[in-house]
Amino acid sequence: MTDKMHPDDIRTLFSSAMSAMYRQEVPQYGTLIELVREVNAATLKDNPELHARLDAAGELDRLDIERHGAIRVGTAEELFNIGRIFAVMGMFPVGYYDLSVAGLPVHSTAFRPVEHSALARNPFRVFTSLIRLDLLKDQALAQRAAKILSERSIVTPRALELLDAAEASGDLSAEDAQEFVRETLETFRWHSGATVSADTYAALVGAHRLIADVVSFHGPHINHLTPRTLDIDAVQKGMPSKGMAPKAVIEGPPRRSTGILLRQTSFKALEEPVNFGGTKGTHTARFGEIEQRGAALKPAGRALYDECLSKARARVSVGLHGEHAHEYVAALEEEFAAFPDDLTTLRRENLAFFRYSAKGGAVAPAQSIEALIDAGHLIAVPQTYEDFLPVSAAGIFQSNLGSQEQSTFEQSANRAAFEKALGAEVRDELSLYAITEESSLKDALEILGQTHLKVKIRAVA
Ligand code: OOG
Ligand code: NI
């Protein structure tokens, strides 16, 4: 057959189409993108070394493109079909996030590229949550919600046809891929007309705003997109002057010289007009977010991160209206003083995942991996964290529910039910980083003629 489109290219087509659609739907998101551009340009200007590094890595052109988006689905079948759609774009479910620990009636995964080369071409991923009607106290309402959901189909008939074709032949022609992206965009579009009455909406909000957000509409509207910034603190500070209301604090670790995991913040969701079967009302769902990613952490690093974070959170809790935000940031900085802030220590103490490469060819047998690094033959670069953080995700959800919602659902992870709905197991993110580290080190040692050195990598928990 004719020209096939590579899944990485379909993903790029999709993420830029989503970006264009979302900017049109949510003009304030366009303002956020402008602010991110300004901050990134200023950061590069003040930082020639960073500019040179990104330029060498070919990253300058793609600096402020979206890194992720998020959707919420209602049923097992919907999750299954979303998984099929993303697979065509080279995105696979990685990680299980139980948000019931944070009092939210959802569990989630991230559909994302897994290969290093695919991530390098376009790392776009979608945080995808499935609501959990089983957690609702009012089971009669849960049944009503299930019935409402059973009557909608979130994927267009043409998209389903193209999906079948893609699965049968293993790929799509360029022309079909274009049409596939156009059709799948319909799944994620905002509809200002609800599928339920104002009364039903109010009852669903009574159960939880997330339940209402999923059950009351035609489909899983994209609820935010997230570009990457080089200085998240500057974007956070700049938001109010551009008419955006940022959430009170940046989620994740504090500002450091070596970035770890993920820092993220958002402008708060907007109240939008909605038509509930002829009755005018409003709904808050859609917002804009920014992220700054650092090194992926090994189990020991993650345990230390969780410990520092929970100590800070135990000391200060930020109020619903941003009370104590300054004290929280101060506590966070103090607690994270315990977390080494230089790459060499992160590597030597097995706190972060690295990727190795050889500079030049074979050299005389060395005593150790450290000696090869010291001599400049072996290069170690931290692996970027490509996943999400449950505590941070809960903070993003919470600040965008547009109310004082403080529900508590019983903590009950149910990975098995999630995977059954998905029709597949989610991949374990830690093993993906471990495999990259191990295989890159093995390859580099081979090139350097150092096969006598054992690749000693701590086992993944
Ligand atoms: C997802 C919130 C989580 C993130 O970046 O952690 C998230 C949602 O609001 O549906 O996107
Ligand atoms: Ni997000």
CATH class of the largest domain: Alpha Beta
Residues in helix, %: 40-55%
DSSP strand count: 13
Please give the alpha-carbon distance between the first and last residues: 45 Å
| General shape | globular
- Give, in spatial order, the strands making up the sheet with the most strands: 3-4-5-2-7
Count of helical segments?
18
Structural class: alpha+beta
- The whole-angstrom Rg is 23 Å
- What fraction strand? 15-25%
CATH topology of the largest domain: 2,3-Dihydroxybiphenyl 1,2-Dioxygenase, domain 1
Which CATH architecture of the largest domain would you pick? Roll
The CATH superfamily of the largest domain is: Uncharacterised protein PF07063, DUF1338
Brief write-up:
By secondary structure, the protein is an alpha+beta fold. It has 18 helices and 13 strands.
Describe the structure.
The protein has 461 residues and is an alpha+beta fold. It folds into 3 domains: 4-294 and 386-427, Uncharacterised protein PF07063, DUF1338 (2,3-Dihydroxybiphenyl 1,2-Dioxygenase, domain 1, Roll); 299-349; 352-383 and 428-461, no CATH class. The protein is 45% helix and 15% strand. The chain contains 18 helices and 13 strands. The chain has helices spanning 7-25, 27-46, 48-56, 76-88, 116-121, 139-150, 157-169, 174-188, 198-207, 209-215, 232-238, 299-315, 325-335, 343-348, 369-374, 390-399, 415-422, 429-447, and strands spanning 4-5, 66-73, 92-98, 106-112, 125-131, 172-173, 224-227, 262-267, 271-276, 279-284, 288-293, 354-358, 378-382. A 5-stranded mixed sheet has the order 3-4-5-2-7. Strand 3 and strand 4 form a beta hairpin. Helix 1 (7-25) runs parallel beside helix 8 (174-188), helix 9 (198-207) packs across helix 10 and helix 12 (299-315) packs antiparallel against helix 13. It binds 2-oxoadipic acid and nickel (II) ion. 2-oxoadipic acid binds next to strand 2, strand 5 and helix 16.
